[in-house]
């Protein structure tokens, strides 16, 4: 069969066949299979690429939508938070305004009580002067008569009024401190909310085209001291509740102060009239030995001078301790800058700490002793002024009982009824306003 085929082929064709390399040729079926493989592979890879492209487009669309929605949702949350802060800030501002008004009203009530207390000084001075004048009576005239009893009763009424008024002043002062503390808490809360509001407004104003945006290290960290929204609400509500409670207590205190002032004035006026009526029934002479009083004044003045010298000495000692204290503080501060493992709590550190404690203890002891000396000096000076006034009264009152009546005439120079001054706005539990007069004096 092969021989037959060769016979049919021309001569030159046979020669050409023998010149080729049969091993490098493939068959038609191989060629077709190879082309089909190439086509199938191309189709498969193109299909995979098309799928990846479609998934990429879908992912781009999804991430773009999520990004836009996330930015919108964050902006919405910021706007809601800004509204919450704004509402809370308005509540705090309204409460702070009411608190300021209440503090002003309580200050007026305290001033009224102080004026009322100052107005008792003249009756107290006159009563003490009259009692002192009558203590100089001699012999049978030195009796415990109704005049003396009324004067002592008047003195008790004045002292009682002074104690009550002083208590009102002290309570008002303490409550003003409480109101001021509540106001400070509101102010601090307002400052924090203002800063937070400014920051949230700045965050809301930012956009993807803003020039100040950048990547930050660990932006999702939880800052130390972070609170929950419930704690945030409770904190402001606690401040508001505390302020409202203090304002209500201040309202009650103001009502009590003004009622106390009116009652004290009525009691003093009634007792003054009783004493004046008793004075009309009886008169006496007065003589006072003021040499002992003068000696006491001289002794207390000498004591005051010596105490002043001791105070100056204590002040110098306190001042002399400040430079060593500054030195040890500076050394401690500088040593905090030691780097790395050299920031060691060595013997020097313990020595400096101990030196700080000793210096602080010394300064505290000196200051306490200085405060005691200053308090003692003030007490002595006040007592000296009282003794000088008493000596003046005694020197002027070496005469008969009529001098006591003349002394009490000083009370008649002032009006019996105090003039109503500034009206203090008060509100009772029902919210209605009350108006109590601000008494200026009890004379």
Structural summary, described in words:
The chain has helices spanning 2-8, 11-19, 28-119, 121-134, 146-205, 229-281, 291-320, 322-335, 347-396, 402-412; strands at 423-427, 433-437. A hairpin with a 5-residue loop joins β1 and β2. The chain has a two-stranded antiparallel ribbon. Among the domains are: 93-204 and 235-288 and 400-443, no CATH class; 290-336 and 345-396, Helix Hairpins. The protein has ten helices and two strands; from the N terminus they run ααααααααααββ. The protein is elongated. The longest helix is centred in the N-terminal third of the chain and has 92 residues, at 28-119. α4 (121-134) runs antiparallel to α10 and α5 (146-205) packs antiparallel against α6 (229-281). It starts with a helix and ends in a 6-residue tail after the last strand. Residues 1-18, 284-289 and 415-443 have low confidence and may be disordered. It is mainly α.
Could you tell me the strand content as a percent range? under 5%
The coarse overall form would be elongated
Strand order of the largest sheet: 1-2
- Report how far apart the termini are: 159 Å
Tell me the major beta sheet: 2 strands, antiparallel
- Radius of gyration, rounded? 49 Å
Which segments are poorly predicted (pLDDT under 50) over 5 or more consecutive residues? 1-18, 284-289, 415-443
In which range does the helix fraction lie?
Answer: over 70%
What kind of oligomer do you see? Answer: single chain
Number of strands: 2
The secondary structure category is mainly alpha
The helix/strand order is HHHHHHHHHHEE
- By DSSP (H or I, 4+ residues per run), the number of helices equals 10
Mean pLDDT: 80
